[in-house]
Design goal:
Order of helices and strands: EHHEHEHEEHEHEHHEHHH
CATH architecture: Alpha-Beta Complex
Radius of gyration: 17 Å
Largest sheet: 8 strands, mixed
Number of helices: 11
Strand order of the largest sheet: 3-2-1-4-7-6-8-5
Length: 226
Amino acid sequence: MTKRRISIVMPTLNEARGITATLTPLQALRHAGHEIIVVDGGSTDDTMAQAAPLADHLLIAPSGRARQMNAGAAAAAGDVLLFLHADTMLPLDAATHIIAVRNHLWGRFDVRLTGAHPLLRIVESMMNMRSRLTGIATGDQALFVERALFLAVGGFPEQPLMEDIALSRQLRRHGRPLCLRAKVTTSSRRWEQNGVVSTILLMWRLRLAYFLGADPARLARLYHRP
């Protein structure tokens, strides 16, 4: 049986502070035959220079996570696409988990937040549980999908926020996700900078508004408001 190849697609924008730390552990996957595609959305810092020697492909695309990830997927050669945020670390055995999948077309990992605040343990537990109940994956959970299915559903809707939820809804029509208990570790910097409780309330508000049909562009302005 031919070994399946994974294409890791990472959108970046001014991630020089942490991009090397994220990409360096992924080099073992490159050596095993998988590929890393970094898609930059117009960084004004040293992101691209740092990423270049650590990626198989370094692309430039119009800014916007959905547009950047779609551009990376279009250039991918792998059988499985794994979308990884620049502040998220995969578990060392991530490829083993994904390659072993035979009865699911898509899935995601459990998530752990980096911060030590006790409320963050509750937040991550709720994120993982909610995903299992709803069949919706978020970008922080390192969503992966068979390339053929991703292309069949048209990729990420090119909207400025909630693109991961919109894609999950499309993929869910073809089967529920595999919810791996192996954990990715993602930065809690937004929670810590803006306050854990305030961020929880904001995310609940945005998700409810999106569920009720609010314009993603308006929600993005609220999300990125200082």
